[in-house]
Amino acid sequence: MDGFLPLSTGRRRTLKAAIGCVGIGLHSGARTSLTLRPAAAGDGIVFRRTDLGVDIPARYDLVTDTRLCTAIGEGAARIGTIEHVMAALAGCGVDDAIIEVDGPEIPILDGSAAPFVFLIDCAGVTATQTAREVIEVLRPVRVEDGEAWAELHPATRPGLDASLSIDFPGTAVGRQSLSVVVGQDSFRALLADARTFTLAEDVARLRAAGLARGGSLANAVVVDGPLVLNPGGLRHPDEFVRHKLLDVVGDLALAGAPLKARFAGNRSGHALNNRLLRALFADPMAWRVQDGLVAETGPIEHALPVAA
Question: Which of these is catalytic: 27, 84, 243, 270?
Fold first, then answer.
């Protein structure tokens, strides 16, 4: 089993074939078509607005909005709710892919990353001859917002070791914590099928703000005080923190390469996750790039800087 096989080592991987789906945007409510396509080694993850003819690289510094999702954009082109498909690609070890979408938002599907993992499995994944680069965190970085905070620390082993706590007092969510060594098996088993969630009291406010127009019990867990309103209940007792950690994986995948790091957070969301990456890359002494093939066998003795 590769549950503890780090996703940050080895050779770059891409899809074997193209595959697509159609769904509804969580916030826009618009029907959207999405296609995952193979890409050349080194191209990274690129979002393509087929209706506009614009490509947007999946990068932390292109994040334009973090209100209840992560959105990236360049100029007038925008693509929202990218975190679940980004998490699926990262969790399946895909480094290079083109994500075509004919509208401003990725389909929400069932509210988790599992449908995207299914698409990736159907398309297949293949390794290239190009070594994967790894971003190694060299010293602690922390961002805060009131009681919420997020940190990155150096790691003694390859891969991403992630811990997160959330707290929604007086609701069915409550306080939950989870720690995961993110590998291909652990991602699938612990994080991939955890759905996004919201509080029933917030739904009307969100829709008045132009958000959650496509939300329903088919693509989100809705909590009303101590009750879960979904007829099927929860997929896991701690599905809420699992989903928040799924979001962390997707948001941190915007670093442009897998991280060798320990992540720790409390009440962290999309905004803090993005601020954390910006703080990391703003400090040239806090990180370096290493060869993923070398990282499989031990640390390297040289640093290979890249533009942040």
Answer: 270
In whole angstroms, give the CA distance from residue 220 to residue 207: 15
Render pLDDT for 165-188 as a digit per residue (tens, 0 to 9): 999 999 999 999 999 999 999 999
Identity of the residue numbered 105: E
Q: Is 270 a catalytic residue?
A: yes
CA distance 138 to 61: 20
What is the model's pTM? Answer: 0.92
Q: Which DSSP string corresponds to 130-178? A: EEPEEEEE-S-EEEEETTEEEEEE--SSSSEEEEEEEEETTSSSEEEEE
What is the residue whose two structure tokens read 């060869």? 291
Q: Which token pair is 146? A: 């009131």
The answer to whether 116 touches 21, Cβ cutoff 8 Å, is no
* pLDDT tens digits, one per residue of 63-79: 999 988 999 999 889 99
Which of 148, 168, 152, 183 minimizes the C-alpha distance to 238?
A: 168
Can you read off the two tokens belonging to residue 103? Answer: 């509208």
Burial class (CB within 10 angstroms; exposed 0-12, middle 13-18, buried 19+) of 296: middle
